[in-house]
Amino acid sequence: MKDKTKYFSYPYIVWIVTFILFPSFLVLLYSITSKDSNGVTTIHFTLENYELFFKKMYVNILFDSIWLAAISTVICLLLGYPAAYIISNAHISKRNTLLFLCILPMWMNMLLRTYAWMTILGNNGLINNFLGFLGLPKLNLLYTKGATVMGMVYNFIPFMILPIYTALSKLDNKLIEAAADLGADKKTVFKKIIFPLSMPGVISGIIMVFMPAVSTFIIPQLLGGNKNMMIGNLIEKLFILNGDWNFGSAISIVMMLIILISMSIMNKFDVDKEGGARLL
Q1: 243: three-class secondary structure by DSSP
Q2: What pLDDT score does 179 carry?
Q3: First CA to last CA distance, the chain
Q4: N or C end of the chain: which has fewer CB within 10 A?
Q5: Structure pTM?
Q6: Residue 107 Cα to chain centre, angstroms
Q7: 195 is a domain residue
Q8: Would 130 be classed as within a structural domain?
Q9: Cα separation of 205 and 228, whole Å?
Q10: What's the pLDDT score for residue 81?
Q11: Nearest to 259 by CA among 223, 280, 222, 231
């Protein structure tokens, strides 16, 4: 029976090869090829696409993308951890309602949610209309880096709350009770027990927020405008508008390497089976 169970993994292997490994190989192949003067792709090894990317302008776009994604991830953590903690400590009858409210925005398409923020932040949006009603000057909120960060936080914060909530909900209350019986106050209990044991959820949340944030293109395109281009917008422009698949593939490979490096850094945290974590 054990020998037959391996056949159940074959569909998964076929899926991985067809929809992950093979497309990734094509992207890598395009990144190391170039077009001749007639626009015909010639398959020969070249690193000119990568050399072009590491010019100052493109590197600045990359750093801006990483910086905005990091800021969004930190804000999601600062807002998401207290929210997950409150949900995990709520009564069971209220807990499901709070989780439902957290997941509810995800039922709507992200594009529509981003358009909604354009209505809120626009010059004639809800915020500026309210400021005008109070007799205050209007603010330039839309098409800024702040609007881009706000949009990413709004769209990705559920991916921070849910894994942290899962980790917190699995905590053994006996450990907290034992610490309280030994004279530990709430601050010490949180610092020494709750937060270390919830680190697997924190790490998962950071990965799940940072990865889509650093590669998103819809949010900066709509909320940031042409002033704030991120690496995802550059890749979209190269593939769709310019038709330069070679250079776009090279940038995609660079983004994949950055994501893999980020994940390897997160894997420096040794997560044990009980839900705890320590830094190696």
Answers
A1: coil
A2: 85
A3: 39
A4: N
A5: 0.86
A6: 18
A7: yes
A8: yes
A9: 25
A10: 96
A11: 231
Residue 119 lies in a domain: yes
Q: Please say whether the beta carbons of 227 and 35 come within 8 A.
A: no
Yes or no: say if 250 and 264 are a contact pair by the CB < 8 Å rule: no
Residues (pLDDT < 70) of the chain are 1-3, 35-43, 226, 269-280
Number of domains the chain contains: 1
Ranges of H-type helices in 90-198: 92-103, 110-121, 126-133, 145-169, 173-181, 186-189, 195-197
- As a three-state string, the secondary structure of 22-34 is HHHHHHHHHHCCE
- On whether residue 37 sits in a domain, the answer given is no
C-beta atoms surrounding 46 within 10 Å: 14
Q: Is 208 helix (H, G, I), strand (E, B) or coil?
A: helix
pLDDT of residue 38: 61
What span, in angstroms and rounded, lies between the C-alpha atoms of 126 and 17? Answer: 48
Provide the token pair at 272. Answer: 């044990």
Pairing mode, strands 41-42 and 34-35? antiparallel
The count of C-alpha atoms lying within 13 angstroms of the C-alpha of 250, restricted to the half-sphere facing its C-beta, is 19
Assigned token pair, 183: 């004279």
Residue 64 burial by Cβ neighbours in a 10 Å radius (0-12, 13-18, 19+): middle
What residue type is assigned to position 67 of the chain? Answer: W
CATH number at residue 76: 1.10.3720.10
Number of residues assigned to the chain: 280
